Q: What sequence folds into this?
């Protein structure tokens, strides 16, 4: 599972970096919303933009906490989560299940930063010069598609969550709030 998550970094982060560096680093057309701060428009799709107002995102986490707790008792969620269970490997290599579980959780949570970079960074901040605010709805639809095969409640919630995080990324030009919310919900 750790290698699967790391593989996504190699196959998604490298192309994004190359595309950004050679094609998207210096935008020529900037929407009015972004024009006042053109140099900070696309600091690697919002990853290097300084986060603002992170307290709002922690409030979002508090709002969804009861829903996550309720979902955690549903049979369809229990089939999918938690994703990591200690096994015989820990005893065989002589390490604590806390270590292997911690490594898994670190890589698992880091994967959500990559998801935010692709969906809110590349598909919102990267496409805003062509579509303006109209880039949010197609991103939310693609984000929901990512959740097909997961519990129905999670797939439905991804439409609303993806849309809200997309709007926030559009206005803030940062993906850090989405990273905080996404990692927070995954950790819950």
A:
């Amino acid at each position: 599972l750790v290698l699967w998550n790391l593989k996504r970094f190699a196959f998604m982060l490298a192309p994004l970096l190359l595309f950004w560096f050679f094609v998207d680093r210096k935008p020529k057309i900037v929407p009015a919303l972004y024009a006042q701060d053109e140099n900070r428009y696309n600091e690697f799709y919002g990853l290097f933009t300084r986060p603002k107002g992170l307290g709002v995102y922690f409030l979002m986490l508090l709002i969804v906490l009861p829903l996550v707790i309720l979902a955690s008792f549903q049979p369809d969620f229990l089939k999918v989560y938690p994703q990591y269970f200690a096994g015989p490997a820990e005893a065989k290599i002589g390490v604590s299940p806390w270590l292997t579980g911690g490594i898994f959780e670190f890589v698992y949570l880091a994967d959500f930063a990559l998801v935010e970079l692709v969906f809110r960074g590349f598909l919102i901040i990267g496409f805003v010069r062509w579509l303006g605010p109209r880039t949010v709805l197609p991103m939310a639809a693609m984000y929901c598609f990512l959740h097909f095969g997961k519990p129905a409640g999670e797939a439905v919630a991804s439409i609303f969550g993806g849309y809200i995080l997309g709007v926030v990324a559009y206005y803030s030009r940062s993906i850090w709030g989405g990273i905080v919310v996404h990692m927070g919900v995954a950790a819950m």
Notes: The mean pLDDT is 84. The chain is about 70% helix and 0% strand. The two ends are 19 Å apart (CA to CA).
